[in-house]
Predict the 3D structure of the following.
Amino acid sequence: MLSFRRKILLSDIVLFLVFIAFLFPFVEKTVGNIMSKSLENRARQFISLLETAPDFSSMLSILETEEEFIFQRISLISAEGKLLYDSHLPSLKKARGYFYEEPHPEIEQALETGAGYSEGYTVEPHEAFAYVALSFEAHEQKYILRTGFPYHEIRKLTIDFEVGFLLLGSFILMLYSVMTWAIIHRLSRPIQQIIDAILPYQEGREEYLPAISLGQMIPGDEFNKLAFTLNSLTMRIQKQIENLMQQRKETEGILESLSEGIVAVDASGRVTFANQVGCRMLGVTHQEMIGRTLDQIQGWGGELSKKCHELVLQALQTSEPTAQTWALQEKGKTYLRLVAAPLARQSGAILVLQDKTSDYKIVEMGKDFIANASHELRTPITIIRGFAETLQDLKNPSKELLHDITEKIVRTSGRLDKLVKSLLTLADIENVSEQSFRTADIVSLAEHCKHLLLAAHPQAKVSLVSELPKALVKADSDLVDLAIMNLLENSVKYSSNPAQIEIEIRQHDKEVALNVKDKGIGIPEGDLPHIFNRFYTVDKARSRKSGGAGLGLSIVKTIVEKHSGRVGVSSQLGQGSMFSLYFPLKSSGEEKK
């Protein structure tokens, strides 16, 4: 593709050729017209002299004496075509009345219109002439005056004109070309500077559009205004790009912080974005995701990726959201909710992967809780009903039998009452609002629980060790008392008399840890992960004998988690157990409130 300068140069060359092509015909026609007019004017001047002659002889005398008046050939012809006089044919002076045998166009035109012009070769005197013929009347006779000028003189004059015009035109065209080149250079130089400044960004060698500087230019120059406008646009575009980049980072940050997996695909189904949660759920790295279709990703055996790909294609084809639940077996029983939604203008789709395992576990735990609660409630009710039916069937029961049956009914009723109260306690704990929490000292609460336990079990040996004088937390004191008392009661229950219990309080990072240690029977290692589950008991016979229903530790865990804390347990069979409660400490700013 030709540059702008080369186009201008090519235009100048074409213009010069066109000028040359029209120059010669124009000059020839112009010179011919000039000579024709000149000859005609001179002929009319000569006719005015002839018209003053008193007779024909005087006219001939004027012709003979004025031959050099215009330095050209002069002929006088009558209206009948007789040659009366010719300056280049002296012999005819003696033989006047000679008739032209050959046609002369200029004479014929003069006879018809009064004036005629022609160019031609004359046999005598063997020379080419340009002729002008004019008709006039004198002495009541019509005459034709024909004047001639040598054609070679006209041709010479024409060549002189052509050379002059050619030189002048060439000079003007060259001057025009130089001026045009200078102007184009002046105009194109800032344009080239602008192109050179923008080119690295266009080619990807620069990340941002650079500022355009045109060097020494006139302050009010249009190119300076153009550069200023482009720089202003560049700044606005750069600012918009920075805003878009910031928004993109914020969006990606938000997407990365979500607990759901997010995968974006284009219209062809290729992945353009995936957050870390999405990569982890699909079992691949981020690099393995980008640029591929979901069915090309192996992940956890590839089945999940293929299912995701099918949902995305369905969303793209129907332009409607689609969803499905998928059970993943590779990482244990994991339930994923897959939702694919198309983007606007069919530019792609978004795939959301939600881990619903906890929801399914909650449902299963609810089912287990209902089943366990029903079982635990059914057992004492069945016992009470059985003893009541026994009393109903006995007509004359002995006093000892009656006392034994009623005692068992009362004991079973007490166990049932305790179970119902525990269930109600769990429900109450879950409904407690954190707005009711106040500042509480864990050390003071532990000391209070120690005295309560000793009052109920005087034979127990309980010690309290604290590395903190105070451990302030935001809590419901009654609930924390209940949690500590449940642990202490369990330690007494599962230890031989006298029970040896140690309460230890220490700081653990930004938490306060309350440890309850005993030297009881301990807990098997296989039961430790389930020890805080509802209705879970290690020794069911011993628990039922003591009136327990497996809700004590569940109540402890619920209380601690309600206070944004956590629980822990460690145990060895035959050596004892240690239960740990962790509560977040109040900050220095909160302590002043």
